[in-house]
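Hi R.,

Here's the chain you asked about this morning:
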Amino acid sequence: MNARINELLLRNLQEVFGEGDARRRREAIEALYTEDCQIYVPPGVLVGHDALDQFAGDLRATHPHFVYTPHSKPQALHNGGRLAWGSGPRGESPDYTGWDVIIARDGKIAALYVFLDTSPT
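And here is the predicted structure, written out as tokens:
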């Protein structure tokens, strides 16, 4: 299970939040998240694939040139895991950093908690 949680954390960062192509992002959401997933982000709580897809797409549109970079190795514990990351223009210091914390169920992300260290500029 630890290897799967690590994979979920890394793929979510790149294939959901870092993906600019809407079709590929949606395919990743369906592969990585349970249908009833809950996403806890500073603006509120999102439920389900459609809400996550809309949020990730809207976020990506605000800074399409940003990349998401892991700042540590993923850590897994039982059915949960966490990953520190940064986001900003490729090759530059991140504009903001944060932590993703997930709870997995049946090999997929059932809940994602996004903690931001600093506000995007």
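One quick note: The first helix runs from residue 2 to 17.

Cheers,
M.
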